[in-house]
From TrEMBL:
<dbReference type="InterPro" id="IPR002078">
    <property type="entry name" value="Sigma_54_int"/>
</dbReference>
<keyword id="KW-0804">Transcription</keyword>
<comment type="function">
    <text>May play the central regulatory role in sporulation. It may be an element of the effector pathway responsible for the activation of sporulation genes in response to nutritional stress. Spo0A may act in concert with spo0H (a sigma factor) to control the expression of some genes that are critical to the sporulation process.</text>
</comment>
<keyword id="KW-0547">Nucleotide-binding</keyword>
<feature type="modified residue" description="4-aspartylphosphate">
    <location>
        <position position="55"/>
    </location>
</feature>
<protein>
    <recommendedName>
        <fullName>Stage 0 sporulation protein A homolog</fullName>
    </recommendedName>
</protein>
<keyword id="KW-0597">Phosphoprotein</keyword>
<dbReference type="GO" id="GO:0000160">
    <property type="term" value="P:phosphorelay signal transduction system"/>
</dbReference>
<dbReference type="Pfam" id="PF02954">
    <property type="entry name" value="HTH_8"/>
</dbReference>
<keyword id="KW-0067">ATP-binding</keyword>
<dbReference type="InterPro" id="IPR025944">
    <property type="entry name" value="Sigma_54_int_dom_CS"/>
</dbReference>
<dbReference type="InterPro" id="IPR025662">
    <property type="entry name" value="Sigma_54_int_dom_ATP-bd_1"/>
</dbReference>
<dbReference type="Pfam" id="PF00072">
    <property type="entry name" value="Response_reg"/>
</dbReference>
<feature type="domain" description="Sigma-54 factor interaction">
    <location>
        <begin position="149"/>
        <end position="378"/>
    </location>
</feature>
<feature type="domain" description="Response regulatory">
    <location>
        <begin position="6"/>
        <end position="120"/>
    </location>
</feature>
<dbReference type="InterPro" id="IPR001789">
    <property type="entry name" value="Sig_transdc_resp-reg_receiver"/>
</dbReference>
<dbReference type="GO" id="GO:0005524">
    <property type="term" value="F:ATP binding"/>
</dbReference>
């Protein structure tokens, strides 16, 4: 960037304008100072600027409006927002609207201010592809270490750019996203990009522990605090001191736990269970939720004051269906990892199978994608995953298998070989045990298709069909299938169902109670 770069400073405090003029003119930059929105608009319409440093609060305008006006008139001008702590949320919104970064007043480190302006000047005026490379170059190696596969989607690239910038600001973050989108991975990225990266990152699932255990887990306990407390135990807030605490499924925390969390955030102090002495802690909180906390606040199931303490910066992780262009890169990354774990053979995916995966909606997001790739790799008897190796949940019509479709069923007379073969298979107890693992999976999927097609034919003929399952029966069946799938692992079953562990425990108790009463 030329030393004759022009910088526009917009701030109603004369002292701030004077500070920037002295700081930047000695470096050879040309500085124009505006004290209100009107002067700023005249300046940006009169001459070209490389960087604008804009205060969020002005007597006749606001920083966000000026940011949008600058970007409209001079798209290549990079904007740095100046803000106080109380307006951090607005500053992050500014980054999402196109600001280069934000800096808090009063300025504690002058070299940090200079460095930020120098980086913005280097960034200004570049082509979009160059800007993308410059931006990702700062955080790509951190994303790789944290396990994030970025892909090509603009949404993920912008999200990580924002996350990288706020990581260094030491403010609380609330991550919103559907189950399986990778909220903990994003939290680890923020921790790794922060000045706390050399200190602990500790995740805790607020929905996985009963209330009394969660309190002890978070705050620790003194000897004799409750039955079984045979010694003093430090809690997560103590262990995570100077580091980052990730509170997953924060919406599952009870109101009493929420009160205690609020006190820690307000005072920086807590007491162990059964303790009398307050303990200081310096912990950054990153919370995550897949529920609407604002709705929970309206329903009085989540404290409003705690919500605003956590919601200083809010980041939204897009579901996989909104970033389909990233699916090939994710698939190839997972296959590369699987190839290195087994025999060392490289496993690939056929174009036909990839096309099916691109068309699927992925309600379980990245977690479901990984699970699907692992299942397909197990079923694959070679080195190429074909459509036939994919789950029927993904393939839908299962057109890669021979289908027992309506035409086939309708053309079979009573007592046909087809019906006789089905009957023999159902009665032969040892038949299934003699099948290969991959064949068992295919049989399962084909039976599902067969059941659906039989019902369709019966309906067309006006035959009496079995009544559909009730919502309660469907829920019970889903829970039972999740437990079979997870082999009794409650945490995994809850994740598969997209609910909290406590919620699953409660539903299991209700099912047991219903069975006893029945």
């Amino acid at each position: 960037m030329s030393l004759q770069a022009r910088i526009l400073v917009i701030d109603d405090e004369v002292e701030v304008g004077t500070f920037f003029r002295c700081l930047l003119e000695r470096k050879g930059y040309r500085v124009v100072v505006a004290t209100n929105g009107r002067e700023a608009c005249r300046a940006i319409n009169a001459q070209k600027f490389n960087v604008a440093v804009v205060d969020l609060k002005l007597p006749d305008s606001d920083g966000l409006s000026l940011l949008q006006e600058i970007k409209k008139v001079q798209p290549d001008c990079e904007v740095i927002i100046m803000t106080g702590y109380s307006t951090t949320r607005t500053a992050v919104r500014a980054i999402q609207l196109g600001a280069y970064d934000y800096i808090e007043k009063p300025f504690e480190d002058i070299s940090e201010v200079e460095s930020l302006i120098d980086k913005a000047l280097d960034f200004a005026g570049g082509a979009e592809e160059r800007k993308k490379k410059l931006s990702s170059a700062e955080w790509s190696h951190i994303a790789t270490r944290a396990g994030i596969i970025v892909g090509n989607s603009q949404a993920m690239n912008q999200l990580l750019s924002v996350a990288y910038k706020i990581a260094r600001k030491d403010v609380n973050v609330l991550i919103q996203g559907e189950t399986g989108t990778g909220k903990e991975v994003l939290a680890r990225f923020i921790h790794a990009a922060s000045h706390r990266s050399d200190h602990p990152f500790i995740p805790v699932n607020c929905g996985a522990l009963p209330e009394n255990l969660l309190e002890s887990e978070l705050f620790g306990h003194e000897k004799g605090a409750f039955t079984g407390a045979t010694g003093q135990r430090r809690g997560i807030f103590e262990l995570a001191n100077h580091g980052t605490l990730f509170l997953d499924e924060i919406g599952e925390a009870s109101l009493s736990i929420q009160v205690k969390l609020l006190r820690v955030l307000e005072t920086g102090e807590f007491m162990r269970v059964g303790g009398e002495k307050p303990i200081k802690t310096d912990v950054r909180i990153i919370a995550a939720t897949n529920v609407d906390l604002e709705q929970a606040v309206r329903e009085k199931s989540f404290r409003e004051d705690l919500f605003y303490r956590l919601d200083v910066v809010r980041l939204y992780l897009p579901p996989l269906r909104e970033r389909r262009e990233d699916i090939p890169e994710l698939v190839n990354h997972f296959l590369k990892e699987l190839s290195g774990q087994g025999t060392g053979q490289e496993i690939r995916i056929s174009p036909e199978a990839m096309k099916i995966m691109m068309q699927y909606s992925w309600p379980g997001n990245v977690r479901e994608l990984l699970n699907a790739i692992q299942q397909a790799a197990v079923l694959c008897d070679g080195t190429v995953i074909l459509p036939g190796h994919l789950s029927s949940r993904i393939t839908g019509s299962l057109n890669q298998f021979p289908r027992a479709g309506p035409a086939l069923l309708e053309n079979q007379p009573q007592g046909s070989p087809f019906l006789a073969q089905l009957q023999n298979m159902a009665q032969a107890k040892d038949y299934l045990s003699g099948l290969e693992d991959g064949e068992l999976s295919r049989v399962f999927h084909l039976l599902k298709v067969l059941e659906k097609n039989v019902l369709e034919v019966m309906s067309r003929r006006g035959l009496s069909c079995p009544p559909p399952a009730t919502i309660e029966e469907m829920e019970r069946e889903a829970i039972n299938q999740a437990l079979v799938y997870s082999r009794g692992n409650i945490s995994l079953a809850a994740r598969v169902l997209g609910i909290g562990r406590n919620t699953l425990y409660r539903k299991l108790k209700e099912m047991q109670g219903g069975a006893r009463n029945g």
